[in-house]
Design a protein that fits this description.
It is globular, with a radius of gyration of 20 Å. It contains 13 helices and ten strands. The protein has a single domain, classed as TIM Barrel, CATH 3.20.20.100. The strands form two sheets. Strands 3-4-5-6-7-8-9-10 form an eight-stranded parallel barrel, surrounded by six helices. Strands 1-2 form a two-stranded antiparallel sheet. The chain is about 40% helix and about 15% strand. Strand 7, helix 6 and strand 8 form a beta-alpha-beta unit.
């Protein structure tokens, strides 16, 4: 397994990490992802650790906390070999303060996550989304306190806009607080908007990308092709409207290119899609999920080799879309405003 520095920190993380959204199956949305129990989770985690994948990602809202509970139990006796990443901010409870990034909610959320995970610290603590109602200084001061207490090792954001992230970094810089070292983002061959603003920001500010849904919300598994119905078992049946939207023709154009490159490389479609991401700037780790051992082992096969420059260029061309303003305008001034890719 290849290990990469997490943004501007000294922490090395595996190029592939394991997402545990499939653990628990605590509500209808997450049951569509999977309902992995503790015993199954132990087996998947053992496979990951054997392969050098030691970063496990979860969130408090995944199956209403059940994902954290399953992960914590499955890691018993192995905590010293694992890095745990979890997230908060989204609503978990009916109370007026059971949401957001206020000092009140962050403190309660972190303590609850630690209890469910059965640990006294998390390695990476994310804000799952941006809270525009809580002052930035309150948010960043609270996260800095968690680090000073030893309950959090590194802090990160997720799903922020460029100005959200830059404003947060600026506040931390102003007061000498711990900075975000990572940004958990959606990025795939079907959704390259990350490249427009967030990737240049990540390069400039040394914020590493932890990529979620690298297979385009399950569309790049190799089971979806032009003129064919969705497979009988797919989370898209129940969750397609809740994830990134993709026009059919764009999907099929990308899949056609993936099929051709996969045949050339002797790899599967998801392996090629993941390998393409591994070659992009700022990417520290790609979060892969799996309901079965077979799926996990296939994903693990995306490392240890590289697509050729010509294959990457073909995938770039097939997946390219016209950016919105001001990004299309900025691309006319690459002499002094170079693109990161």
């Amino acid at each position: 397994m290849e290990y990469r520095l997490l943004g501007g920190s000294g922490l090395k993380v595996p190029a592939l990490s394991f997402g545990t959204g499939t653990f628990g199956g605590g509500n209808d949305f997450f049951k569509a992802w999977g309902s992995t129990d503790v015993e199954e989770a132990r087996r998947l985690i053992d496979i990951c650790l054997e392969a050098g994948v030691n970063l496990f990602d979860t969130a408090d809202i995944y199956s209403d906390g059940r994902s954290e509970e399953v992960l914590g139990k499955a890691l018993q006796g192995k905590r010293d070999r694992a890095l745990i990443s979890t997230k908060t901010t989204f609503r978990l409870g009916d109370g007026p303060n059971d949401v957001g990034s206020s000092r009140y909610h962050l403190r309660r959320a972190l303590e609850a996550s630690l209890r469910r995970l059965g640990t006294d610290y998390v390695d990476i603590y994310h804000l799952h989304g941006f809270d525009a109602l809580t002052p930035i200084e309150e948010v960043q001061d609270t996260l800095n306190t968690f680090v000073r207490e030893g309950k959090v090792r590194y802090i990160a954001a997720s799903n922020f806009s460029g100005w959200h992230l830059m404003k947060s970094l600026a506040a931390a810089e102003r007061y000498g607080w711990t900075r975000f070292v990572a940004h958990q983002v959606y990025y795939s061959l079907l959704g390259r908007e990350y490249e427009w603003e967030l990737m240049p920001l990540g390069l400039d500010q040394k914020v590493g990308a932890l990529v979620w849904s690298p297979l385009g919300w399950g569309r790049l598994t190799g089971k979806i092709r032009r003129g064919q119905p969705l497979p009988e078992v797919s989370r898209l049946h129940k969750t397609a409207d809740m994830g990134p939207q993709v026009k059919d023709e764009h999907l099929y154009t990308v899949v056609d290119a993936l099929d051709a490159v996969a045949a050339e490389a002797g790899k599967t479609v998801p392996q090629v899609a993941l390998n393409w991401l591994l070659q992009r700037p700022t990417v520290s780790s790609i979060i892969v999920g799996a309901r079965t051992e077979e799926q996990l082992r296939q994903n693990l096969g995306s490392v240890g080799w590289n697509l050729t420059a010509e294959q990457v260029a073909r995938l770039d061309k097939a997946s390219a879309t016209q950016p919105v303003y001001p990004y299309w305008h900025q691309r006319q001034f690459t002499e002094r405003n170079p693109l990161p890719v």
